């Protein structure tokens, strides 16, 4: 199955198998380091043919998936990147006490109050939906699996909270069985979850699984391009999250139904500049392109109290660019050094309070080039 998927992806089976094993060389061609595609019609995730039940390789295994910044301004639904410091962890364990082939969520832990809203029903919970998709793809029939989810990301924050849970679960279950699914099959499993809980978009779950910057070139077939930001160049994300929830479904409902030709041309050119800036490691151009969304940001900004003033404060404090992170309410600013990032974050927090009446918290992050990874495992 992995070999077949790899053939579609134009990458070798060995590089397409386990993401925790696969590490692209930073010296590889920047644009096409990973170019993988899978047809949603032919994907193993929807196949019903019988094949051997895969044997588990571990009794339990934990995976971490990072926060993500989606859209990056003009890249609505097709550009996103992973950022370090924040994320979710899922442990998948063989459960001898439950019926073979079943999945349960035994516990959800978190220091964040919003996580008390999460359901332990695997058909509703993001981690559960993605884990079930992976179990279906692998045709797991002989063992039951139980998940524990540790939420590090607040819900509805614009930091890819649902995608991080889905990505960590997909990778944990896949790796429990030795990692037979390809990266794009894992993203596809995560997309099943995104579709159910927030909307059909891979700009969070793609980078949460693959790391770095990811361009979703196509959804049918799913085709993902990783864009390598050059090693050795500093890129700092200032993530300022106000005390305010903006559910992605609600923020998507606010989007314009039509786009004018003028706005299409403007946003397309900015998105193309953004891709060039990533590949060149040009933080100034990257920030300027991120700041230039003329379609989505103007319709969502009024729904986030203080957003316009926070962006102004970030740019005045020296950020190269600023926009809404994902569907918001987190606002992301870019700069090229951590110290500047801290200063910009303080100004943005002040502006959220003075302009929007909201308390906010700033986190200064770097690019997470790795994506979802195994952090612990127990052999059989
Ligand atoms: N592209 C999605 C949106 C990302 O903006 O609705 C949500 O995090």
From TrEMBL:
Domain GHMP kinase N-terminal: 131-212
Ranges of residues in domain GHMP kinase C-terminal: 275-347
Pfam family, one: GHMP_kinases_N
InterPro entries (UniProt xref): GHMP_kinase_C_dom, GHMP_kinase_C_sf, GHMP_kinase_N_dom, GHMP_knse_ATP-bd_CS, Homoserine_kinase, Ribosomal_Su5_D2-typ_SF, Ribsml_uS5_D2-typ_fold_subgr
Pathway: Amino-acid biosynthesis; L-threonine biosynthesis; L-threonine from L-aspartate: step 4/5
Region (Disordered): 1-24
EC numbers on record: 2.7.1.39
Catalytic activity annotation: L-homoserine + ATP = O-phospho-L-homoserine + ADP + H(+)
GO molecular function: ATP binding; homoserine kinase activity
Keyword Transferase: yes
Start-end of Polar residues biased regions: 9-19
Tree of life domain: Eukaryota
Record-level GO BP terms: threonine biosynthetic process
PANTHER family associated with the record: HOMOSERINE KINASE, HOMOSERINE/4-DIPHOSPHOCYTIDYL-2-C-METHYL-D-ERYTHRITOL KINASE
Entry's family note: Belongs to the GHMP kinase family. Homoserine kinase subfamily.
Protein name, UniProt field: Homoserine kinase
